[in-house]
Write a structure and sequence with these properties.
By secondary structure, the chain is mostly helical. The protein contains twelve helices and no strands.
Length: 312
Amino acid sequence: MTQSRPGLRQAGAALAYRDYRRFAASLLLTSLGAQLVQTAILWQVYELTGSALLLGLTGVARALPHIVLSLVGGVIADRFDRVRLIQAGQIANAALVIALAALTLTGTVAPWHLYLVTFLNSAFTAVTQPARTALLPSLMPRGGLVNAVALNATIGQTSQIVGPALAGIAIAGAGLGPTYANNGAIYVAAMLAIVGVRPPTILSATVAGPWTSFLEGLRFVRGKPAIVSLLVLDMGATVLGSYRALLPILADELGVGPGGYGVLSAAPGVGSLLGAAALLSLGDVRYKGLYTRSRTAARSSCSRSPGGSRSP
């Protein structure tokens, strides 16, 4: 009897588990909602102010809660029902964007409203994300965990394409107010999707206080050079690659309107999927980080050589 070849059925093996299907649907809706609100707020800030500086400050409003609250999100996830914590974050985000929809439709919205919503939306996400990550292993056997993590990454990349594109279409076709209202409905749907998920009850071995657990987590990370390296790499990419706030200006200069702005915002997600496909095509290459770095250096050297195509 021949063994079946890997295919779409194997790629979606984690979806055979009911609780994970609900979890994945909730994650997809939550990710789409996050992309929608971020895309719409950037466009509205530029529409209200026309200022590149004020656009850039939305990044500060989004980053500060992540810097502070992501560190304590794991401590909170260890002490509360994770499903309820995720649902609370989704309802809070729904209330935020529905309030923003009302302010926009009544013409009373001001830039500080947009900064406040950005700040709070980021804060709720920072608190609930560790709970979402910690919940995943309890939804299926250990053998399906790698597949579930891969599906989660695919969901995230897909939302980075679909979310901004939908935001651009919605802003161009219906306006910002209805876009925010639909965004709120997506967050509510995300909360409903995860209803009924009942992970097995595991008695927590956490007996230390929250501050002690927080310090233990920091000591664990500091003792793992691979984790520290990944954190530094991610920080560099985030700090030096936060160009998204400038896309409304680029769309305005190109004259493509909110629809074109949505396409520009979706383009990085397309690049992520193409990059993931390229890495998958390499197979199980040893020292993948060194391989990627050497390929990058080779391309850079070629572009600087006399025969390269790099423009002066």
